[in-house]
Amino acid sequence: MISSIFQRLIAAWKRFWVSHFARQNRFLWVIPLPVAGAFITGLCLSLLFTACTANNSSNNTANSANNSHQNKASVVKFGYQKSAILLKSKGILEKRLQPQGVSVEWIEFPAGPQLLEAMNVGSIDFGHTGESPPIFAQAAGASLTYIAGIAPSPAGQAILLPPDSPIKTVTDLKGKKIAFQKGSSAHYLLLQVLEKFGLKYSDIQPIYLPPADARAALVKGSLDAWVIWDPFYAAAQKAINARVLIDGTEVNKQGGYYLASRKFATDNPETIKSILEEIKTLEDWSDKHRDEVASTLSPVLGIDLETMQKATQRKKFGIVPIDSNLITLQQKVADKFYELKLIPKQIDVKEAMLSPEQYAAFSPKI
């Protein structure tokens, strides 16, 4: 097909230019006909090549756009913990994403490490944790990326004791059994507290337990202390009269993160932008309506209103964009866990970050 078109095109151009030069009665005598034919043939080849290249380029662009459209997720599998169940309860993501043809599937986890394990195997696309779980996940080779920072709430974490515990100071923790979720924000809080008061990690007996099991063990007397966050922290204060040894206000100035699998982040920037904008709007509203937040969450979590109000009052609401300061803080967390040989290798947290251009595409103005 192309060959026949090309042959007809060359013949037409030859007839046109020979006729044209003859009418003008000049230059024709200095251009041998074979040379003129070769020139015209070359010109036709160039035009045909250009047309084919343009057509291929157009096809490639269309294919790229089609692939991008095909890769866009129609469902966001959102991992969450009880500390952020308000987002699910309000149903705001469903309302925002429905016009885009995207639905939301919610999956609950007891803590951040389990959430990121699920993300690593593709069971969820998006979720939030404290500062420590991403470090352990990256060290294990998980393909995840940081999306946005969560404002720190140091007063919402603490080391709890049984009500009749003889422990009076942090130094009394030496040799004691302390429970916490391994690789969680509670884990890092404990490291910070021990360092501040001159103790080593090897000075205590770490007991790795998820929140529900740790609380039960504390009640049974199997533990000396428990490191935990709200709302579990506030609930333990009320239900079992747990005593606070120290909270995070003296040491912990770092918040958590929203994270996504790298593939989801790369393929769905518009969806992520919508999610972050709705999260920011909810956080701004929550900061000004704390009593309403507590009354909404109390029946959902099965926690009495007074306890829920306590947890809500000591929470700092808000999200923050990923910047060099957050990266520096997160690298310190990674270095500390590696120093104690709690992760198998040293990691560079920048490898789990996106480019500035990618962040700019979906980060809300804060």
Rg, Cα atoms, Å? 31 Å
Query: What is the number of helices?
Result: 15
Largest sheet: 6 strands, mixed
Oligomer: single chain
Overview in brief:
The protein has 15 helices and eleven strands. With 366 residues, the protein is α/β, with parallel strands linked by helices. The chain has a six-stranded mixed β-sheet, with helices on both faces. Strands 7-6-8-5-9 form a five-stranded mixed β-sheet, sandwiched between helices.
Report on this structure.
The protein has 366 residues and is of the alpha/beta class. Helix content is 52%, strand content 14%. The strands form 2 sheets. Strands 2-1-3-10-4-11 form a 6-stranded mixed sheet, sandwiched between helices. Helix 7 links the parallel strand 6 and strand 7 (205-208). The chain is globular, with a radius of gyration of 31 Å.
Sequence-ordered SSE layout with sheet pairings:
Elements: H1 2-24, H2 33-71, E1 75-80, H3 86-90, H4 92-97, E2 103-108, H5 112-120, E3 126-129, H6 133-139, E4 144-150, E5 157-161, E6 177-180, H7 185-196, E7 205-208, H8 211-220, E8 225-229, H9 232-239, E9 243-247, E10 257-261, H10 262-267, H11 269-288, H12 290-301, H13 305-313, E11 319-320, H14 324-339, H15 356-362
Parallel strand pairs: 1-2, 1-3, 6-7, 6-8
Antiparallel strand pairs: 3-10, 4-10, 4-11, 5-8, 5-9
Helix pairs in contact: 1-2, 5-6, 9-13, 12-13
What key attributes describe this structure?
single chain; 366 residues; alpha/beta; disordered N terminus
